[in-house]
Amino acid sequence: MWERARQRRRATAWERDLPGSLTAEAAGDEAGSPLLEAGRLYRGVSGVDPEPRPMSAEEIARLGDPMATVTFRRGRFPMTVHELLAEIDRSGTVPEQKVFMIGEAGQIPPQNAPQLRRDLRFTLTRAERGSAPDLLISTAATGDPADGFLQVIAWDPVARVFNYYMRITPAWVWTGDSWAALAPESRGKGCFDSHVNGSVVMKELKQPWGNWQSMAAQIQLAPSDPLRADPLYRQVRGAEELEPMIRALVSRWTGARLEAVIADGVLRRPDQLLRQLFTGTSVNLASALTQSAAVSPGQDLVLPLGFWLNADALVDDLGLDVTAVPPSVPGALYLDSLIMFDFRLEEKTSGFSQEGDTFFAFVVPEAAYEDNDVANQMVRKGLVSAKFAACALMVDFPSPVFSPDRARLMTYVPAEATPIDALDERIAEAIVTAAGRSPAGSPERRFAAGWALPDDRWRAEFGSRLSAYLEKAGARIRTADGFGDYVRLAESRRRDFKMMRLNEFELTLPATGIPEDAPRLRMTEDATVATRP
Amino acid sequence: MTITASRLAAYGPPGRLTDLDEIGRQAWHVLISESVDRAIKGPDPSQALHDSPRPQFYNLTKTETAPDAAEVAVRWTAFPRRVKLHSIGDRKRWEHADSSRDVQDEYCEWSVTRNDAGKITRVTFTCEGPEYWEVLAQTRPDVVVDLYRRHVSPDVQRSDLFGPDGRYRPRNEWNNSTTHGAMHLIQQSNTLDAEIELAAAATIRRVIDGRELTTAEELINCSKYGAAERNSDPHIGQVVNSAARQRADISLADPVGLYIDGLSTDGWSAPDGSDPMGYWRYVRGDAGYPVRAVYEVPVNRNFTVGDITINGRPIEFGAQIADFITVRLTAVVCRVGRSTAAPQTACVQMPQATSPEEILRHASMMAEHGYPGVQRVTRRS
User: Fold this and answer.
1) Are residues A188 and A272 in the same domain?
2) CA angle B319, B221, B42 (to 5 degrees)
3) Are B311 and A251 within 8 A, CB to CB?
4) Is residue B373 over pLDDT 60?
5) ipTM
6) Terminal CA-to-CA distance of chain B, rounded, Å?
7) pLDDT in tens, A249-269
8) Do B76 and A238 touch (CB under 8 A)?
9) Which residues of chain A have a CB within 8 Å of the CB of B239?
């Protein structure tokens, strides 16, 4: 019931697909769930608790995050964001506040689409002075604050987990902690359908920060919009300040998690960590830094690097030297493609449609920071070698996301506890052994070829391959056929993303005229596009 | 922040610095006031069309700031976006940004000091416009030398800073590199005059083919008040224009200047567990108006800046810190809803050249600034 309560974000991308979902309309005037009593904190972990149940005093006492200590443990149950902020202010903890704002319709001029619900949302961070935030609040920026969604993620410094809460009037529900995201029974369920690894999420993490208000784009409001007078709106900062906070928080949980799963030199459940290297468990959304409507025929458009490869991991974290420049498409080809492929923004739930690409051009899923951070910290802590991580990521590297080839290598990752000092060698040996009986070009053979490189040569060898690939892509993107292929490939990946629950809003991505049943595509190392098996 | 209605007596020095004497302060006021007046007037139509005047921009010392006035801070990241756009990987962009002051074009420049082992021991950031130093050099040259000695090196000699003709040389040997000191901004676009001109030009509303322009890129492309590839220019323009669309009058708050808004240290870690924010100091500018900052670990800590990590990665470049620095200017917005200024219905254009000399002049302006339609040397390039 609480998973489908109306006081959650209006995820337009789900509402059409989930019969029985409690949209605001379907829920009528009912404010929240009648199952819950006022002044209580319930426990409602999706996949575990069949229905919300009141948490005992002992259970509440074990919650050590600022949300629990400031409110629930004092018998306080603020029902609006303003009441919550007042409680926090009174407590004197986490005094530093920053406000951010996001809206998938935020760049659509209000006067052009009066039928469109803009669904602007605030994210508030609260931190001790000079520290990364310990408490994040997500709430509707407009509408009745007592009725819109209100969710909190708060860091428990003792348990070293994030706790997840949502208000379902007239009560609050604890929907789990970071470990629940990894537990089989609750993985991918409830709030963990997006917080898949128990961390904080900012989908549009990098410049230009997609739908966020930022130094790259101000969210558009009508001159008379009452939001302009909202004290929280007046505090809104650019998403460029949120990005480093989110990175720090993701890393905080990754670090805590790694420490918790290692005991006496043995790593518990290596598969739960290494799936973030081999398969990727989430994605971020990247785009060109340029506004799509501002692209002119004579201007080059640099596509997001994450479209071509997982540069964050391979170049930044693992230090491969790439000499190529980021591929760019002539503006004329990009503009032609918008017509040829019938790009438009569509929200079927409201009937809204607008020709063209998303506000920032060429949005695509890229390798997730939370996945890369796990791999990076595993390397830094010596759980696996840099070479091992590089060999894994170099398998099908032109497909930085949704690579069945790389995912196949998970077959060789043990689920049982494994000594750290033998972890990567054991997995590599298993892959190399399997390579001997697998066909040419298999993922196992490609991994094995990299693994066989001498320790003083693998970086240069891999870097050369990346540079050669980007140079080919840089040439091919400047041809009509080549760029057309890349548009189809980008759409293929967007459709993979749309299968994820992380895809909450219809306006996050463009729609195209590419047939729904078009085969999924993959990039090859010679920068051509092929059908994905 | 709400401010009381008033007419400013005189523009004050940036950061409320106290280096200037009375004559210097008067000269500074005149310099800013005249710059604002020029910006209100805009370019002569022989230089640029559809770019003048700017009736929604006003001079704080000549026009009253109305009781409804509010200050609006405009913030952006110090790391140069243009470098980021054309780099593959963090290391390459950091190397590039650390290589020359000429690429540090977000109104913030820095210089890096390393020890014999090559580790960073100190990074100095400045957002002081060169105009202030010209005025100071003309009125109190000895103070200029003293400040260089205090903030850059005790080895500075007067002859290092002033030419044989006695004129101050902004790009002197103690202020022309990323390794030998940074006293004030020298990148050609990093000037207060450019800041004022940009803000004024952005107050012009643009209604093109019946549609009012609102986004950062379409505004800067149409109004041509800077370079679209920067963090700062399009953002300043969009925020200012947003206020103009509310039919407000706009100015730059006194003291007119560029300020270091802050450093965030999310994800930073010092080897001894100390707070990395503790090594960040503002060394010039009044409270709330810092124009110079230093990141440096005291010697008694037994580690250096280079031992501090950001998301697990040691600080090897000053640019890594610049990623976390926010720069700010502040606009004053008042008389909301009362401006009767009509929008321009065309974008800025260069007038048709009628002679070979004009064609050459326009071509040289394009070469200098990288975009057409701009005739003033104060424009950001």
Assistant:
1) no
2) 100
3) yes
4) no
5) 0.90
6) 32
7) 999 999 999 999 999 999 999
8) yes
9) 218
